[in-house]
């Protein structure tokens, strides 16, 4: 599907022009236009609804019902209109939306799938976690890279969902995230590794999953493994980080890892990191990797601050 776009960015000139005379209209009228108007008028009404804040309780309840009804009728909606519905609905979604939003995981338009993820993440109810996990796992092999990465992020974020019942036991959730380390997409593998760096639910399994990555050919995976395992007291991981920092072609991920682990290290070990970091700074390290020099320079400054003067 071509030409599918999100609503204009709120507060911009395109937004003001798009909303136009709809801006001051009553909420009930806007909902009726969204439900019954032509696609353009409906999208303008939905854009105006995004400015309704804070929602009155009665209006929010009615709006949630109307918009959920539109999501239920997804196959009859123009994709651009469905996108606009999801953008508004994300702010007022309730667990009742789960069957219809989960069905959108199979939608052919990648943007709609990603907004469906956002809606369920906004609800964040543990009661929906198992169904969400089951629906998201197959999308790790979606044809669209953004959907693959968004699915990995959704799965990794389930640990923060709240409420009862808890429908995904910790071992299953940890197994799902560690399983992403074997995904075909390198971006998914990297995201999973970064998620596991701070995976406190099942720490020993996270350590065991990341330990083999100390020998990975992917520097981002090696850096993530080193960061996690240094916190677990692994001297081999520390030696790897120190040696990588001393390498002339050091990857930015190791500079970032040094900054993140430094505060928890004894003074002597912090000094072992500061020396190669200072050498990188003196050598003008960002120029060794000309892509995004400013970001890399900032990473190095952060790392040096993190290890202090030792």
From TrEMBL:
Pfam families: HEAT_2 (PF13646). InterPro entries: ARM-like, ARM-type_fold. It comes from the Bacteria. This is HEAT repeat protein. It comes from Actinocorallia herbida. The lineage of its organism: Bacteria, Bacillati, Actinomycetota, Actinomycetes, Streptosporangiales.
């Amino acid at each position: 599907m071509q030409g599918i776009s999100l609503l204009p960015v709120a507060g911009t000139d395109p937004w003001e022009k798009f909303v136009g005379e709809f801006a001051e209209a009553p909420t009930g009228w806007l909902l009726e236009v969204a439900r019954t108007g032509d696609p353009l008028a409906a999208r303008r009404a939905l854009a105006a609804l995004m400015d309704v804040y804070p929602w009155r309780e009665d209006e929010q309840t009615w709006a949630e019902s109307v918009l959920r009804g539109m999501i239920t009728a997804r196959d009859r909606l123009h994709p651009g209109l469905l996108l606009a519905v999801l953008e508004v609905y994300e702010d007022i979604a309730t667990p009742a939306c789960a069957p219809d939003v989960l069905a959108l995981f199979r939608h052919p338009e990648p943007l709609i799938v990603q907004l469906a993820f956002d809606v369920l993440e906004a609800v964040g109810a543990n009661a929906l976690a198992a169904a969400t996990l089951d629906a998201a796992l197959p999308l790790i092999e979606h044809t669209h890279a953004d959907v693959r990465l968004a699915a990995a992020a959704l799965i990794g974020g389930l640990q923060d969902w709240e409420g009862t019942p808890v429908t995904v036991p910790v071992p299953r959730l940890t197994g799902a995230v560690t399983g992403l380390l074997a995904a075909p997409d390198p971006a998914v593998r990297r995201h999973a590794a970064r998620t596991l760096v701070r995976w406190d639910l099942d720490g020993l399994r996270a350590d065991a999953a990341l330990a083999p990555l100390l020998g990975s050919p992917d520097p981002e995976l090696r850096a993530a493994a080193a960061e996690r395992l240094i916190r677990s007291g692994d001297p081999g991981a520390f030696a790897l980080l120190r040696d990588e920092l001393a390498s002339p072609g050091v990857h930015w991920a190791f500079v970032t890892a040094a900054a993140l682990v430094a505060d928890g290290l004894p003074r002597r070990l912090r000094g072992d990191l500061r020396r190669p970091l200072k050498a990188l700074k003196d050598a003008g390290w960002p120029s060794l990797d000309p892509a995004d020099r400013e970001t890399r320079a900032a990473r190095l400054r952060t790392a040096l601050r993190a290890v202090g003067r030792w």
